[in-house]
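Translate sequence into structure tokens.
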Amino acid sequence: MGGQPVFILNDDSSRTKGRDAQSSNIAAGKAVAEAVRTTLGPRGMDKMLVGSSGEVVITNDGATILNEMDIEHPAAQMIVEVAQTQEDEVGDGTTTAAVLAGELLAQAEDLFEDDVHPTTIVEGYHEAARITQEAINEITVEGEVDDDHLRAVAESSMTGKGTGDISAEKLAEIVVDTVKGVRTDEGIARDEIRVQTQVGGSSSATKLVEGVIVDEEPVNENMPRSVEDGTVAVLDMELGVREANIDAEYNITDIDQLNAAIEAEEGELRGYTEKLSEAGVDVAFVTDDVEDRVASALAEAGILAFENVGNEDARAVARAVGAKRIGSLEDLDTDDFGYVESIAVETYGDDELAFVEGGAEAEAVTLFLRGGTEHVVDELERAIDDALDVVTAALDSGGIVPGAGATEIAIAERVRGEAASVSGRKQLAVEAFADAVEVLPRTLARNTGMDPIDALVDLRSAYDSTGSAGIISKGQTGEVADPIEEGVFDPAAVKREAVESATESATMIVRIDDIISAD
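Result follows.
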């Protein structure tokens, strides 16, 4: 049978199709990209995000901004997913990916006006993305990525972000030392890097701790506040009077029986301290409660103990000091214990933190971040997380490329150069992809106070002359210079992932010509 298809929809449903559907999706995607565009680069601006309950977040981190925004449009949510994918895969470049996706949609909108079919646009974009990956491989800096390169990558990722009174250059040194501290023959053990924040004091007090920090205080105020060259036990048990597994009643008929019961209980409690002391334990991390009388006895024996230690902290301590987690004090074996060079309990306002440093098998390291306010500490933590991720990516995922927009200029020139070999209208989509990629250096130029059109012309000219040209922030403005000479680099993995995720998202949205929704 012929004729038009029949759609049977609920009365509460609505339908948008054709050019209207495409325009709606593209407008939503562009709006999301525009929301983070001004945060790009070393002179990017911050956003203040106020939640429904009044909580405030101040940041220029693209992933954080998009996650905090209350976005309902499905196409806009797809752009948010681009940023989230970028964050999950390489940890940085979320704003780059979102802005690129938005510009690809904007270019697609112009192609629609020229009657280029969506399928042709999709094919052209994918062809251009393939060329882009080849271009990134070609401009990847040759040779081993050394410490200077790593510091430059870390500094580039943090420049322009809120780091309090500590410079991005100083933080970059700390970040590189941190990542190198967990580098193994198999690669970077990123999960072994812990971040501990503490409000109060200046950001310049941020430091690297060769070990772990536990947010706990001693169970008794008479216990030692520090231990040097100590033996450590991690106990998965309660240090208190054990309860019977069955319901039972005991009839006490005279004072002697009462005294005997009390003495038995006291003996059990004393036994904990005696066994730990005889085994030579100096510090005990206990995941359950420590009874007050046991705590007093431990203090008298000079043993430092912490109670109700969380499972994650207990696991981290055990790995750092080389200890096994013990469920019973019967038949203790010295192989179950760990060793630590020092444990010190330090006070910060109303909080006490235990610094566990120099463990026998310390593979974990901790970055201890300070800041005067919650907002400063939170933004510093986001900057540090990005820096850790980009340094890891530079070492583990394919090296580094020139930053400051230079890679995008090289990509655009390469894509345009090969567009001529693409037949039909698909060539228009390939050229549009090159124009879209240049939105990134244009945005960098605008955010540094330069005229974006003039800057783009200068960038192309400089690239033709020297093969490398980017927007370098200088004082209150920017200038066109060679980022390699200026020491501005990005991980190649960040560029690869941004192009891949932005292309996938944009092409998926471009192919939609019908929106059916339940109101």
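Note: DSSP finds 17 helices and 20 strands in the chain.
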